[in-house]
Specification:
Chain B: Pfam families: BPD_transp_1, BPD_transp_1_N. The complex is a heterodimer of chains A (316) and B (319). Chain A is 72% helix and 0% strand. Chain A is mainly alpha-helical. Chain A has one domain (42-315): MetI-like fold. The two termini of chain A are 31 Å apart. The mean pLDDT of chain A is 83. By secondary structure, chain B is mainly α. Chain B folds into two domains: 2-73, no CATH class; 87-316, MetI-like (MetI-like fold, Orthogonal Bundle). In chain B, helix 11 packs antiparallel against helix 12. Classes of the chains: A mainly alpha (316), B mainly alpha (319). Chains A and B meet through helix 7, helix 8, helix 13, helix 15 and helix 16 of A and helix 1, helix 5, helix 6, helix 10 and helix 11 of B.
Chain lengths: 316, 319
């Protein structure tokens, strides 16, 4: 092989290998590597990442060992057990149910719904934004009118009405109902980036050489805005935690026998609970605050990684 | 200019029609009928059937929809089952409470966000900027209802600085006292709402100011020897302000959605709390009217923002 190159080209095989190595050492590192470097450079971000991943894994596994129907049984002997007692280390609520156990199962449910909602609504929003931005013209005009209409809807009210109309719903139906309404932010962002991206030369070159439109959209434009997609998905995950918990807080989220962080915080709607029995709602509130801040901090780090001028990590 | 506004309004019309059809169908999907509220339990089913017939509620859905729209334009939204009074009067009473709270929150949001945005932009990269950016990061992602609950716990119950329920104290008498008591009741929800909705304005203004700092007109003003304070106040701030004013319309949407949480936590008798109560009592006529009103207010907010934006930025008009 080297001999063949020597015969055919003016560059010798040794030179070619050397040039290759030089090019590789100077090449831009992959997105994954850039992000990893960024996390290594920023210790709080690393801590936030470990907290989030560790916490999610912990509640997912620990919730498997808790018998939910048994946990939700009323046990009047434990009526408002104070925290840090031998039996319930975070106390018990008005029905004598352990707050610590409800917190674990509730976190599992709330985080699970937020993850599902993020997966569905982001996928849909990204596809919507890419298609709308790439085709421009009438397609874009029509899709934008749908977007405008969705933005006008009083989302929270319509979701509450839908939840009251649907007779039997569970976590999955709830996630699907939310997904109907929470894709707009992503789609708007992706559309504006796609509009800019579709004007670039590589897209024009690809169109000229006869590439399939869908291949251009999903194989060529999408990878080029992947950093934006990663950042946006992370930030919408932080926001989506507030969606289900907020509705459960109002009493229109998960059914009453399914604990959620929102239903735990709803204990605070009782003036007695909020002052005397703070342990029934405060841990859940603090947990949401810590979760959202950590996820959003990770989002900030990812945003920095996406913008070459703001990076703190070494790029090579 | 007028062409843009006219076109924008023409686009609105189908949106309102689709919204009203959607609201109507949702109301149809709910169990019960509009007369459940106005009859007593002993009423003859034949009587109800007769009432349905004379009100045109026995036809196919499109003819019922038409009747409903005609009533709507006569200002007749039906009677509330729970409160036994016309929905229009019921909502009008609650709407003022919600609008006062929203107005106060909005003014306070701007009062906090404008100086912060300019200050952060002016001292870009220095300590004040870092602090303000940390503040926007903290307020950006925490769900609003959690803030309300923690806020009412600390300032309403533990410290006891603010009232925790209602829109006016029952002992308030005399107009001065009444106004004072009303203001006292919207103070805490207003402050919490304002502190946690500044993010967009602060970030936008900050980047505007940073951009303007390096622009030619600022350099000219500096070269003329104008004091830095005046340059920021008269040149940079005024140029960045108009796009910010356009945010006012969009923030109506956010405030209305937020009002459901605020009013539930503070038991504040506005439209949001009315909605939650009506859902619990299955008070369909009120629910339908509120969804429609919120939708139309959202639409008007967006329209307002779009008009301001097209006034300010000629590029938007050409599109």
């Amino acid at each position: 092989m080297p001999n063949k190159i020597d015969q055919q080209s003016s560059i010798s095989a040794a030179d070619l290998t050397r040039l290759n190595q030089e090019a590789q050492s100077e090449a831009t590192p992959s997105t994954a590597r850039i992000i990893w470097n960024e996390f290594k450079a920023d210790r709080p971000a690393m801590a936030a990442l470990i907290i989030i991943v560790g916490f999610i894994l912990f509640v997912m596994v620990a919730a498997l060992f808790i018998d939910t129907p048994k946990m939700m049984e009323t046990n009047i002997m434990n009526y408002f057990n104070p925290p840090f007692s031998a039996q319930d280390w975070l106390g018990a609520d008005s029905a004598g149910r352990s707050i610590a156990q409800q917190l674990i199962v509730g976190s599992r449910n709330s985080i699970g719904i937020a993850l599902g909602l993020t997966a569905i609504s982001s996928t849909f929003g990204i596809a919507w934004g890419l298609i709308s931005g790439y085709f421009n013209g009438y397609v874009d005009w029509g899709m934008q009118r749908v977007y405008d209409f969705m933005m006008m809807l009083p989302m929270l009210m319509i979701i509450i009405v839908l939840v009251t109309i649907i007779p039997h719903y569970n976590a999955i139906t709830l996630t699907l109902i939310f997904s109907l309404f929470y894709w707009e932010g992503t789609s708007r962002l992706i559309r504006s980036r796609t509009l800019a991206e579709a004007d670039k030369d590589y897209v024009a070159a690809s169109i000229t050489s006869g590439t399939n439109q869908w291949k251009i959209i999903f194989n060529q434009i999408m990878p080029n805005i992947s950093s934006l997609i990663i950042v946006d998905t992370t930030l919408s995950f932080a926001e989506n935690i507030g969606v289900e918990t907020g509705l459960s807080f109002l009493g229109f989220g998960l059914p009453s026998q399914t604990p959620s962080l929102g239903t735990l915080i709803a204990n605070a709607n009782d003036p007695n609970n909020i002052t005397q029995y703070w342990w029934t709602w405060l841990p859940a509130a603090l947990e949401i605050i810590v979760l959202c801040l950590s996820i959003s901090y990770i989002g900030q780090v990812l945003r920095r990684a996406a913008d070459a001028s703001q990076r703190q990590g070494m790029t090579n | 200019m007028w062409k843009t506004i006219l076109r924008r309004i023409l686009i609105m019309i189908p949106e309102v029609i689709i919204l009203s059809i959607l609201v109507f169908l949702l109301a149809k999907a709910m169990p019960g009928d509009p007369f459940t509220g106005s009859i007593n339990p002993k009423a003859d089913p034949a009587q109800i059937a007769h009432l349905m017939k004379i009100n045109g509620l026995d036809g196919p859905w499109y003819s019922q929809y038409w009747n409903w729209v005609v009533h709507l334009f006569h200002g007749n939204l039906g009677n509330s089952y729970q409160y036994q009074e016309p929905v229009t009067r019921l909502i009008a009473g609650r709407a003022t409470n919600t609008l006062w709270l929203a107005l106060f929150t909005m003014l306070l949001t701007y009062a906090i966000a404008l100086p912060m945005g300019v200050f952060a932009g002016r001292h870009e990269g220095k300590l004040p900027d870092t602090i303000i950016r940390f503040y926007t990061y903290v307020t950006y992602c925490i769900p609003f209802f959690v803030i309300l609950v923690v806020g009412i716990w600390i300032f309403g119950y533990v410290l006891g600085w603010f009232p925790t329920t209602g829109s006016i104290s029952i002992t308030a008498s005399g107009w001065l006292n009444t106004i004072g008591s009303r203001f006292y009741h919207i103070l805490l929800p207003g402050i919490l709402g304002a502190l946690f909705s500044t993010v967009n304005i602060v970030q936008y203004l900050r980047s505007e100011v940073i951009d303007a700092k390096h622009s030619d007109y600022v350099r000219t003003a500096r070269a003329k020897g104008g004091p830095t304070k005046d340059i920021y106040r008269h040149h940079i701030f005024r140029n960045s302000l108009l796009p910010i004013a356009a945010f006012a319309g969009y923030s109506i949407t956010g405030l209305l959605n937020g009002s459901i949480f605020t009013e539930t936590v503070f038991s504040y008798p506005g439209m949001g709390l009315l909605f939650i109560n009506s859902i619990s009592y299955r008070d369909y006529t009120v629910i339908t009217a509120l969804v429609l009103i919120y939708g139309i207010l959202n639409l008007l907010g967006t329209l307002l923002s779009d008009i301001i934006l097209s006034l300010v930025d000629p590029r938007i008009r050409i599109q």
